[in-house]
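Forgive a beginner's question, but would it be possible to get any protein sequence you like and the tokens describing how it folds?
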Amino acid sequence: MEIKSVDKASLKMLDKAAAENISTAWERLTQQQPQCGFGELGICCRNCNMGPCRIDPFGQEPHEGVCGANADTIVTRNLLRMIAAGAAAHSDHGRDIATTLYEAVQGNAPDYPIKDETKLQTLAQECGIPVEGRSAREIALDLSGLALDEFGSRKGCLQLLERAPQKRKDLWAKLGITPRGIDREVVESMHRTHMGVDTDYVNLTLHGLRTSLSDGWGGSMWATELADVLFGTPQPVKGRCNLGVIKADQVNIILHGHEPTLSDIIVFAARDPELLAQARAAGASGINVCGMCCTGNEILMRHGVPVAGNFLQQELAIITGAVEAMIVDVQCIMPSLPQVASCYHTKIISTSPKAVFPGAEHVPFNEHNAMETAKKIVAMAIDNFPNRKPERVSIPNEEMQYMGGFSTEAIVEALGGSLDPLLEAVKSGAIQGIVGIVGCNNPKVVHDQEHLTLTRELIRNNILVVETGCAAIACAKAGLLLPEAAAEAGEGLEAVCRALGIPPVLHMGSCVDISRILVVASALANALKVDISDLPLAAAAPEWMSEKAVSIGAYAVASGIFTVLGLAPPILGSGNLTALLTAGAQDVVGATFAVETDPQAAAKLIVSHVGQKRRALGL
């Protein structure tokens, strides 16, 4: 029998789904077999109405599309469009956070007070905004305005690029890939890939790197920094995760998506005494708010709210039969949710004007009346509690504790106020290197298995692992985000973790928070007076599936970080592009991609890479 997941709670819900004849992502993947071979290789084009065109992967006719575009052009255009879509998704998230801060200090969003004035002042000073003798409102007004200007910037480059080592900035300038405005790079990507514009695969790839940099060092970084200002900078916090956090005797609300402007306010709405009394009157003992996917990461690291699961568990949470409402905003939300929910009493409530789902109830959410709308949504969930069918409820008992919330500031604090102890641990060899494991789940591989196998192999080799997104949730469910997990690490890393009271795998937030990893990498490079590409660092996305992951991988490589993917992107139809990204890029940006489907083999690649960088630094 095919193994679909290594998570026992998920397997129980998959058995329940099969017994109740409910289709999930795994069944829909099977129904799609065989998947289009041209699409998997990236050699199909629908960019004009002379097509769709395809190139034969075996070198037979046709060699070109109707317009004359060859495999290199078609594959690279498709990749650039994926990068642009991923950068747009993350950066639009950042724009929404900046807009919320701007509206809050204007008095138009009163439910969003500034919660970290220290970070506000630090960030403002970094950006050249005066703080002496000024109120938090005045500073935040200037800062949010500057952030919003970054999207259509006319000044030549993005503000937060100043954090990067000078050698890296000089390299970007030499290559002509210093990102200008976030919107400009995404729009130019779409222009370049229009029929009859850019056809050179190298030129297209360079702009892909520039677009991805506008995400990692622009939109995503602003999203992280301003979310900390608005909602508080995360500090280490303990909580619980997996489907067992759903409670049979409570009103269960699942928050799913990516916008903390919604999830953060609902957490507080669900604590309202009147709504709690309403829940008890409906027969529940309380209101249980749980996170899912990256929204789960946002609220776990700031409030210790339980996390029900990662991407592939969103349908399974509903299949427990105990979820009164799943509240969704944007990104990674399966269109199947209303269909699955229709088999139970669960309400799917969409909230964003950017994402309306047929079959869901739409409750428009905006910052101007945030708490009022949040309370309305919580009340809808409470009203649905009596409609639950007890005979159809089956909640797995699997749940695990975790320690999350390792922001850049929290890591520095844990190290005693500077990164020097981390540098010393790396220099001494107690920590051989640092690897960021990020990304989604994908039913093409066994759920969570690639994340866990790669992570365990790396920490055994004394490599500190930092994680975000669904990868972090996978490790949380397996107990790897607990200090006790140091017992699974190599002797050097174990000693460091026990001395600091931290896990060998550090949870750094949601997928936009990968920018925190860039900040730490830059700080280490600046301290050693080297480039990021000189450090014993690597990144990996073992189970990736989204266009956001393509943008993330591109800006990691463009920043000088060797990046291993567990699934091949749709580029193999172009031998030239494949060679450029997996070999030639080393001479251009100092880093490459590698594709390795076996996580143990991927770990060996990374350990070897870390060793090479250590030797080059004389460590």
About this structure: The first strand starts at residue 44 and ends at 45. The domain at 406-616 is CATH 3.40.50.2030 (Rossmann fold).
